[in-house]
Amino acid sequence: MNKGERHRITHVEVTIPADHERFSQLGVIADFQVAGDFTLPTTEHRDHYKHLIGDRYENFVSVKSIRDQHAEDLTTFSSDWDVSPLNPFLGIEHATNRGRESVDVKTAIEMYTINPAYAMRQEDKTGSLAVGKEADFIVIDKDILKALEEGEKISETFVLRTVFKGRPIFSSENFKRAVVDVCKHLNFGYQYIWAEVCMD
């Protein structure tokens, strides 16, 4: 990983295989946007791409090929809003459904979290949970690491709670009901727990 300058190419779309290893050689971050349906290998846009750029369309959004060239920390996902949907869970789902350019769910999560934090020189503050960091995280309604094998759609994941710098800034009604139900079930003094743990 390049500890000096952190140059980045955003909208990495059409590349040639000879350039894939150059990202890691030069320490350049490759930033992809995959939430748009048009980036999927099965999209109807492919015939249009082939007409315009010929066989190079085969290397359209080469996420895995570039990442596999020793660029694990130098590959990121971003939203491309408002050209593509803002939903990062849709991007994670698409990242796992790219044929030979697919990555696994854990990798896709890293490409949306700790890797962009590195790109912004914020890896010591955010992007993962660790002692001394700012405790930016969300609580969601499913285990997205297991969602695909259980037949669930990652893109339909809902955020139940958002915590920013250790302080809750959003809680859905579903989250509030779930906490009260759990506390009741465990026979805790749920009103106390609700006040101390769950309220903003």
TrEMBL record:
<dbReference type="InterPro" id="IPR011059">
    <property type="entry name" value="Metal-dep_hydrolase_composite"/>
</dbReference>
<dbReference type="InterPro" id="IPR013108">
    <property type="entry name" value="Amidohydro_3"/>
</dbReference>
<dbReference type="GO" id="GO:0016810">
    <property type="term" value="F:hydrolase activity, acting on carbon-nitrogen (but not peptide) bonds"/>
</dbReference>
<dbReference type="InterPro" id="IPR032466">
    <property type="entry name" value="Metal_Hydrolase"/>
</dbReference>
<protein>
    <recommendedName>
        <fullName>Amidohydrolase 3 domain-containing protein</fullName>
    </recommendedName>
</protein>
<dbReference type="Pfam" id="PF07969">
    <property type="entry name" value="Amidohydro_3"/>
</dbReference>
<feature type="domain" description="Amidohydrolase 3">
    <location>
        <begin position="4"/>
        <end position="170"/>
    </location>
</feature>
